[in-house]
Amino acid sequence: MPPDHTDDGARAARRLRMQNPDLGIVLWSQHVETRHSVELVATGRFGYLLKDRVLAVDQFLDALDRVASGGSALDPEVVARLIGRQRADNRLAPLTPREREALALMAEVCTNVGIGRRLFLTERTVETHIGSIMAKLGLITIDEQHRRVLAVLAYLGGH
């Protein structure tokens, strides 16, 4: 995005979010920028899609609908880059390998049904894993916070 052709879009999104915290934002970019993206993911109502990986109009429209509904839509490549950005925290050490897989799929914005399909688990088993993840990460139920987002942020910061 002009003028710098670097992180201009992410910086603009960050400024827009500061001005209007409830604004849904979808970055549609050729490249992955991580410096501003972690903050935007944390606030919800955010999508980050890569132009060369959105292959169908339905896929793009689905992402827009999720963000408009208050959710997130992150390309797996964006998630991978965000994960690689920070690895210092050992907060995830108590998680089992299966819980880490479920958390990684949460970071890809999968629902419980989606996680179950990808890991060949029942929805009830996925719910059990997610409950365990939340407990091990110390994420209690608070009305003003999205525990799934907090869990994903812990994953992105500590994986």
Structure description:
By secondary structure, this protein is mostly helical. It has 2 domains: 78 residues, Response regulator (Rossmann fold, 3-Layer(aba) Sandwich), CATH 3.40.50.2300; 62 residues, Orthogonal Bundle (Arc Repressor Mutant, subunit A). The chain is 54% helix and 8% strand. It is built from 8 helices and 3 strands; from the N terminus they run αβαβαβααααα. The longest helix is centred in the C-terminal third of the chain and has 14 residues. It is globular and about 40 Å long. This is Response regulator transcription factor.
- What is the CATH architecture assignment of the largest domain? 3-Layer(aba) Sandwich
β-sheet strand percentage = 5-15%
Instruction: Give the spatial strand order of the biggest sheet.
Output: 1-2-3
Radius of gyration, CA atoms, in whole angstroms: 16 Å
Could you say what the CATH topology of the largest domain is called? Rossmann fold
Sheet with the most strands, sense and barrel status: 3 strands, parallel
Total domains, how many?
2
